[in-house]
Amino acid sequence: MKHVLIVGGGFVGLNAAKILGKSGKVRVTLIDRRNYHLFQPLLYQVAMAGLSPAEIAAPLRSLLSGYPHVRVLQAEALSVDAGAGKVETSIGSISYDYLVLGCGAQHAYFGNEEWEPLAPGLKTIEQATEIRRRILYAFEKAESTDNVEEKMKQLTFVVVGGGTTGVELSGAIGEMSRYTFSKDFKNIDPKLTRVILVEAGERILPAYHPDLSARATRDLESLGVQVWTSKRVEAVDSDGVTIGKERIQAATVIWAAGIQASEINRSLGQETDWLGRVTVRQDLSIEGHPEIFVGGDQAAFIPEGASEALSGVAPVALHQGRHIARNILCDIAEKPRRDFKYFDKGQMATIGRSRAVVEAGKIRFSGFFAWITWLFIHIYFLTGFKNRLFVVLQWAGAYFTFNRGARLIVNKEWQFYKPRKKEPFPKDDAGEQKKNF
Amino acid sequence: MKHVLIVGGGFVGLNAAKILGKSGKVRVTLIDRRNYHLFQPLLYQVAMAGLSPAEIAAPLRSLLSGYPHVRVLQAEALSVDAGAGKVETSIGSISYDYLVLGCGAQHAYFGNEEWEPLAPGLKTIEQATEIRRRILYAFEKAESTDNVEEKMKQLTFVVVGGGTTGVELSGAIGEMSRYTFSKDFKNIDPKLTRVILVEAGERILPAYHPDLSARATRDLESLGVQVWTSKRVEAVDSDGVTIGKERIQAATVIWAAGIQASEINRSLGQETDWLGRVTVRQDLSIEGHPEIFVGGDQAAFIPEGASEALSGVAPVALHQGRHIARNILCDIAEKPRRDFKYFDKGQMATIGRSRAVVEAGKIRFSGFFAWITWLFIHIYFLTGFKNRLFVVLQWAGAYFTFNRGARLIVNKEWQFYKPRKKEPFPKDDAGEQKKNF
Q1: Complex ipTM
Q2: Which superkingdom is the protein from (chains A, B) (predicted)?
């Protein structure tokens, strides 16, 4: 049996593994740094205290436990040795007959990596809980101070980047401060919160029709978000940001401005584009290596006749994963491979509690109906029935009460003794006390 | 209006704040290091991947938002200056007319604090997710290795301390490895997991009737847990533990062997007992300071005629919090204070999915009915209706499928660039790329 190695348990890898596992015609190993599949489109809800991490993530091992030929390992892929047909990983080298890469991307600062501790991005659960911690903590600090300048700084939130993530984050912060927190904080008026969405381009949601950009801008403004377009962030420090020539004192800055494809692309010996993505052929394999397939955010797939690569959004990645699996099965059955055709399912972004913008081909709509559409599609594609049920309940609860359930400020440090440098417990007493263990 | 300062948002502080807030007769400030109230009795479920942190914790601010005279601040209390009537905190000094202390306890190693990184305790959400991470990661490592010794080490779990927490933890690990993981791991037989519960005393659950200890031991053994009594842990290192004279190779060690009352007691100038608890009088105030009340794990309350202090379990803490509030209101109304009388509501511990032991006075029972009792009481007292609903659903799902929803290995580090020491992105390209922000 041929061995297919899948790197990454995102939309590409998980869907490829399911099709290959169902066929029973190949042996599959799926490796991922994490032990779970993450439903990225709802990650901003974790950052916004609307959902718990476990509601948008499911263990890869259980998702794939029904397929006897699929093995799941938690390991990090370090580099691909395409000549030798093997991948170096944190648990040793793994050889393959076919390789499927879906390692995704991480947020990128394009030469300003030192901004990361000051302005976290939103790609992982750890980052989402860090952003949640910062936002909630800023409100707590604003509540406990009487210094007006400090209070204003704590209540100023800057979101950098006007794509889908930036729009969804800033809308949620605006709504949270206006409604969720309005009765909880007694020493501040949470409505005084200032949320600034900064976009270097001429309009937010540049991938959408200008009408929808305008509508999203109006919707954000109605939630108290200031939308600054054609403005560039020049500097970030611990007290705030410099936008163009203007200095903004802000305790919380969130980075949603750029992504960079997985570093593993560097070891493929192929050309990469400005986002670090490797170009794939029409069958999704790479030049010179028909046994290596790449999909999702890690790949630049330019449809025939088009000038630009498809963006690696969830539906594209999902279909690429399935298509890669089917092309491998074509090889096994000695049939010709097929080219990847993507029927554009459209794109959507939600703004606050009951508004969204939806665009699919020539169809465009916004407002409450768009939000319902957004809701159903996201719940439909969410992995795992139980998760779906829980997310529906969370949202129903949040919709009617404006409350957000997951408002916990959780620290990174779990140890009690080390950070506090407590005096050691007197050894003499210890003997007696041990009796009671 | 008199000012009541409450330190700690646990069962004591939250319940005192509610009664005082409802009366409208005093001004209340509640401070806590955390922004949430944690339902401690279910914390082991977070460590065992059965529940998400947000399902057993609720923001203090929203729990108390209905009381106009109650203010909530996130701050750490550092010391009490009883003479001056003020408390030093991380956000400055706060003076009071009445002080209510319910700072609880943390796990203690009694002179072996260096064991903490090797054997985490279970008192906070951070510790619970750390334990969850270690257990899940051990199974992942066992799956990816072919070295038999290493596999056995990864699959050996040692729980130190045979009280309620230790029994509940070891039972859950036993069950999880036998049922939840049995089909998920293909390269290991999770039934080979070795779980050892170590207790220095003669029997586990020493606070219960010997019959129930025996029953709990049998129930644990049926889940594959080895119960070692009259055994003391002599050493802990990164490869395992020494129990008595026996060396056990174990990747995961959990500490449930002892607690120590909050350090703030040291600043009260009172005598403390061997658990660091301060002795309180029958009205729950401390000697010489009728305006200072202490409750829960931080206090040693010896009922009249009894020889031992009540243990600071949740129902005791809850009633003490309410009683303290009522005594303060007695003072305000110029009525005499009342002594605290505790009607023993009993105690219970659950073992795995459908067994428990319950003891209330002379009533003792165990098995499935005890488990149902345990379930209803815990859900009834869980804070917040939505949380209750979610926990019921999680348990219903887990009961029928043996699945555990929150099996995420979440790391502490959220930054991508710093830990990896990536080469900086070439500055020349950066200019061009920024266009696309």
Answers
A1: 0.82
A2: Bacteria
